[in-house]
Fold each of these.
Amino acid sequence: MNEKKFVIGGHTLDETAFKRIMQNKERIPDPMRYKKEAMHYRRAGASGLKLPEVSLGLWHNFGSMDNYEFMRDMIFTAFDNGVCHFDLANNYGPRNGAAEENFGRILRESFPSYRDEMCISTKAGFGMWKGPYGDGGSKKYLTASLDQSLKRLGLDYVDIFYHHRPDPNTPIEETCYALHRLVEQGKALYIGISNYDLARTKAAVDVFRELRTPFILHQTCYNLLDRTAEQSGLKEYAAEQGFGIIAYSPLAQGLLTDKYRYGIPEDSRMRKSFTLKEERLTPALLQKLQKLREVAAARGQTLAEMALSWVLKDKTVSSVIVGASSSEQILENIRINPVFTQEELEKIDGICKD
Ligand SMILES: NC(=O)c1ccc[n+]([C@@H]2O[C@H](COP(=O)([O-])OP(=O)(O)OC[C@H]3O[C@@H](n4cnc5c(N)ncnc54)[C@H](OP(=O)(O)O)[C@@H]3O)[C@@H](O)[C@H]2O)c1
């Protein structure tokens, strides 16, 4: 029998998903969301802030061209399963600012009384508006950008505010002090940095320590195929200093899943966005992914589940920030088992080094 299919915003859905999405307007968060124990929580470094092991990032699929009901469905699915940390940035879209606007609308329409159950982060650091004050790490830019973000989100404060990337043209003291002041003004509760190398991280930590800034997280790319955070000594330094690593692109933008197992689907990031290039999909990589898939299967996991579990195997990693283009992906991505045998770890390392 042919199952009925529905298309929303370029996504093909079965009848159950379609009906669920159509009822979003009346939907309320699942009262059993914590009782299901779908999610575990870890402290962000040595701070008191707990984060879900899996957080949801809104870099892709929450822009001005994406379907609103689809976005709202993903936020409900995440929240209903204990994923209470949502990661944004001023420039997530496209159009810059669109993800914050869409998320703000979802909060307003569907989660008006759930703010205190959510950890919401945003960032500034990439080019956001024209002229000399719309980019970088100056006090001028960071202060104005967070004010704009709060407006788009409809919030009084964010839980974590990050400097999105280092700015070699601004003294580190200025950037750190600007972030510190935003905490003093009550616009952010905690501070993070992102994409800083080890030397610049150390310089920032020195300033934050002097100011007693609640600096708690370093957001960095970390996955089975990108071990820079380990090789550079950043992960070790984080453990030593008591701040957490929060890993972005833990699935290597979808490579570490079954998405590209049989080719490049039309609805994939590789087809729809410039951030994941087709050249990455070499025969050597496909072979590596297949071998990793076999290790995952022996653990009773999919490749995506194992890839996320692997990043979370050490407690220095406070959370993985996954992206998703559907609720089904979120449901797969929360199945974490961060316990690995030595033999499994060696096998995985052997495959990744090849
Ligand atoms: N600080 C920074 O500079 C920085 C940089 C990058 C990202 N980030 C943050 O990290 C978040 C996550 O980054 P990311 O989106 O690159 O993470 P990712 O989890 O590595 O990749 C997410 C993409 O993989 C595919 N996918 C996810 N789960 C899947 C599954 N179970 N099966 C098949 N495909 C699956 C989806 O792509 P399809 O669309 O192809 O389905 C999804 O959009 C961002 O949203 C952002 O918040 C921060």
Note: The chain has one domain: 6-253+317-344.
Amino acid sequence: MKPPPPTSQQGHQSQQSWAATTIVLDHTATRKPAIIKIADGIYCAHDYAVANVFLIVTDTSVVVIDSTESLSAARAILNDFRKISSLPVSYLIYTHHHGDHTRGAKEFCSSETKVLAHRLLPQEIARKNLFLPHRERINSQQYATALRFAKDGYIAPTTTFEHHYTFNEGGISFDLSHAPGETEDHVRIWLPQQKVLFPGDLFYGCFPMLNNPLKPTRPVSVWTESLDHMLTLQSEHLAPSHGLPMHGAAVIAETLVKYARAIRHIHDATVRCINAGQSLDATLREVRLPPELASLPYLREKYGKVAWTVRGLFRQYTGWYDFNPSGLNANPESLRQRVLLEVCGVSPLVERAQRALREDEPQLVLELANVILAGWPGHLRARRLRLSALHRLAAASVSSMERNIYSHAATAAQAALDGRTTLGTNRARSDIT
Ligand SMILES: [Zn+2]
């Protein structure tokens, strides 16, 4: 098959292209794979998979950054790229351990290929592998689809480093630096001669997933420090691992400054609320992005959410105790719900839930339905109300992950109402982001 011709991107990203950044994980969108030329000899394989792959042609070889989540996507990239260069792959560099960056590695590597990563990457992979059944379950929720990953093509690094690593390959200098943020093992790559910066997942065109509700906590406070450091490089091309490359030193600097400012604002405002002794609920009401940042197309909450960040930081910094003694050794929630049901009776709760649905308060419907179903799991009206609420919450979601979680729950609820069960059928074998 004829490969897509390399295309060149000029100017900064349009609002539309921010919306198309692949990090939003819209599995219903049609992929438009393309090899995009970033600068002379530097290419981005975009939209073959969840994350980009970068290929740098030197005088003697090709250096590859990241590998996608699947061997088939990696193979498609290499097939197309072989029309541009047939040189061997000398290095594969991982930006971090997430599956959308590491699982296609075997396609790119020969026995001669050196694989570079941060020192922490192998132990992050090992920790992830401890929880494979759990991760399959949560990823089926995160993606709300029968997303299946073929064999894991991860290859362990042959060389790791702690802070900084440089090398020259075929006349091109590569400068790697530890840049924690999305993960502890995150690396940014810098080509000083060509002024191309690869920030990995520390920048993508929407509000970042600073705290993923399904995954371990992330080092938010150092994320901004990593971005600050990247700013000092004054890059002329920015090639994030999700979304399209950007060009132009001024627009890149302005974008990174505002991205870092947004993260710092949410982090610092949450810390102030904690120190002021505010509850989580009060903090959630108070902490917002300033309007001038919230209105930026690359800070829309299409993936991460401000409220999820606040929740995550609160728990990360204060522990799980909610400072209400009733929560210290709380009864199971189901016991509390059954007692409420005993006191209130089913009918008033159902009527109140129906009113909440009429008044478009689907979150309240969900919570009231939970109370009813705790004591009466087969209650048909409560189950239907819950299903309606899930559909409304999914439809109203801006964040792709939020929409997927509600949609997954709605599919399971509908199947249970129909007498089927889908639990376990939408299994995703992945470890992305
Ligand atoms: Zn990623």
Note: The first strand starts at residue 7 and ends at 8.
